[in-house]
Backbone:
């Protein structure tokens, strides 16, 4: 198990390196703990989670990583001998792990640009899809990340909009009732905080 954690400077360093080897434009959208780290709501992340929505860009990114010595270690996970302290999770299309988002993260309003290099564009997934994807997994770390994002937004998360987005996404998954419990727990916490209880 890896105990190394990557902060924002280390993330930008990786992005710069990858940019130098890419033969064409590639748009990546950070999700998970990587997104929270890039937003400044988390000090570091234990792995790098990126979505590459466009098929040709995904293929180009994977070929570049392979040339740099990265090898697939699990279905979505890549690791390099020269940088073996972290895992790079790359998700294709609208997927984050097993969660399929309702819309492309490249659609206007579905991500925020963080940094753009000559060939690598780095965005961060919108708050609603980010929280939805984490609550669908529902680990204690996922709940902690959702709390950190909500706290960082200082009450700027529209809980009704979040509930609508979550429910629409959860319809596609078995065990919908179990998944809705995660949403109910998170909403109750957030409403309790706004009520001062």
Residues:
């Amino acid at each position: 198990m890896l105990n190394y954690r990557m902060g924002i400077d280390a993330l930008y360093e990786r992005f710069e390196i990858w940019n130098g080897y890419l033969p064409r434009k590639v748009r990546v959208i950070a999700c998970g703990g990587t997104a929270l780290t890039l937003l400044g709501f988390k000090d570091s992340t234990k792995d790098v989670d990126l979505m590459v929505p466009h098929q040709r860009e995904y293929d180009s990114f994977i070929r570049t990583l392979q040339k740099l010595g990265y090898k697939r270690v699990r279905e979505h996970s890549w690791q390099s001998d020269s940088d073996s302290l972290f895992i790079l999770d790359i998700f294709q299309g609208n997927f984050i792990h097993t969660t399929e988002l309702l819309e492309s993260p490249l659609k206007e309003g579905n991500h925020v640009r963080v940094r753009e290099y000559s060939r690598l564009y780095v965005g961060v997934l919108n708050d609603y899809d980010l929280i939805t994807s984490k609550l669908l997994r529902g680990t204690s770390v996922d709940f902690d990340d959702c709390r950190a994002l909500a706290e960082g937004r200082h009450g700027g998360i529209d809980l009704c909009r979040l509930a609508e987005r979550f429910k629409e996404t959860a319809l596609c998954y078995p065990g919908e009732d179990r998944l809705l419990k995660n949403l109910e727990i998170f909403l109750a916490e957030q409403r309790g905080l706004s009520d001062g209880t």
Remarks:
- The chain has a mean pLDDT of 93.
